[in-house]
Write a structure and sequence with these properties.
alpha/beta, Glycerol-3-phosphate (1)-acyltransferase, 7-stranded mixed beta sheet, two-stranded antiparallel sheet, 12 helices, 15% strand, globular
Length: 323
């Protein structure tokens, strides 16, 4: 099953790569808008998340935004499929980089020569690593290992085409520390839910969101700078802009455990504020289908229906196909 899925993805990728880039992107946007009409777990989550994050919008405004979210997602999928076909020169010609001097200054300011890059699943985020690699940045990306091992291998191949190193999240702490001390930049997306035992609840769009504290701990332990960087699509075109912000002003560790824990929480909050500001600037470019508020503080009600409550699973139980 896993191999068949990976083979199907690779076949679709080869088909996409035969089409002219602009035509493929337009098709991706159309397919994305078509997918938005479906009523599955992912689309339901996206609609709910938009309602939670933007209660001030009318229903019609949220529907328009929702459709553009999936159009943007469709373009991103196409661009990911095209990775490998583009030369380094092509990538640099398609992308403006704003604030590269901020990354250079941050790396020079720390004795290890590396930096933690705070980022998110925003814009054409797979293209982000490729562009940074094409510019000669020694980049490592921390990612969650896919359940499908064949798909995981495909993703790794796509990401390493331009010299980007991939770090599995389970081994991220030690590998990231080694990379920083070798002068590498470690890209850490911080926009997804995590379990309470591995994160901190901090406000995101006005709601408590459980957020990994690993990047904050790593920065405080090493003194490495944290530099926010995000990939923006320019309108609905094939062009992009990487925006690199100045290194964040973070709190150091305290004199005792309580003070250190407070500093970690504040630093996670500051990082999350940056991500929220970016998402608010171009909300259609974020992945709203992720269950960002899945983990809830003790005593708070669940926001999303459990998998057991999904219609297909209920049907299978009714037919005796699932216990």
């Amino acid at each position: 099953m896993y191999r068949a899925g990976a083979v199907g993805i690779e076949a679709a990728r080869k088909l996409i790569r035969r089409a002219p880039r602009e035509r493929a992107l337009a098709a991706g946007a159309s397919i994305g808008r078509g997918y938005a009409r479906l009523h599955g777990p992912r689309t339901s989550t996206a609609r709910l998340n938009l309602a939670l994050a933007y209660p001030e919008l009318s229903e019609a405004e949220r529907r328009r935004l929702y459709r553009e979210v999936y159009a943007s997602f469709g373009r991103m999928v196409v661009e990911t499929a095209l990775l490998g076909r583009l030369s380094r020169e092509d990538l640099l010609a398609l992308t403006d980089v704003e604030g590269f001097e901020n990354l250079e200054a941050a790396r020079k300011s720390w004795s290890g020569g590396g930096a933690i890059i705070l980022t998110a699943h925003f814009g054409s985020f797979e293209l982000f690593g490729a562009v940074m690699g094409a510019r000669g940045v020694p980049l490592s990306i921390v990612h969650r290992v896919a359940n499908n091992p064949f798909l995981n291998d495909l993703i790794r191949d796509w990401r390493t085409t331009y010299g980007v190193e991939v770090i599995a999240r389970g081994s991220a702490a030690r590998a990231s520390l080694r990379g920083l001390r070798k002068g590498r930049c470690i890209a850490m997306p911080l926009d997804q839910n995590t379990r309470p035992e591995s994160g901190i609840f901090t406000p995101f769009f006005g709601r408590a969101a459980c957020t990994r504290d690993g990047p904050a701990r790593l920065a405080m332990r090493t003194g490495a700078p944290v530099v926010p960087a995000f990939m923006f699509r320019i309108g609905d075109t094939a062009r992009h802009r990487v925006r690199i912000l100045p290194a964040l002003d973070l709190l150091p560790a305290g004199n005792d455990r309580e003070a250190t824990d407070e500093a970690i929480a504040e630093n996670v909050h500051r990082m999350t504020e940056v991500i929220e500001a970016v998402v608010r600037e171009a909300p259609e470019q974020w992945i709203w289908s992720h269950r960002r508020w899945k983990s809830q503080p003790p005593g708070e009600p669940r926001i999303y229906p459990s998998k057991a409550d999904r219609p297909l699973r209920r049907l299978k139980r009714a037919l005796g196909m699932r216990r």
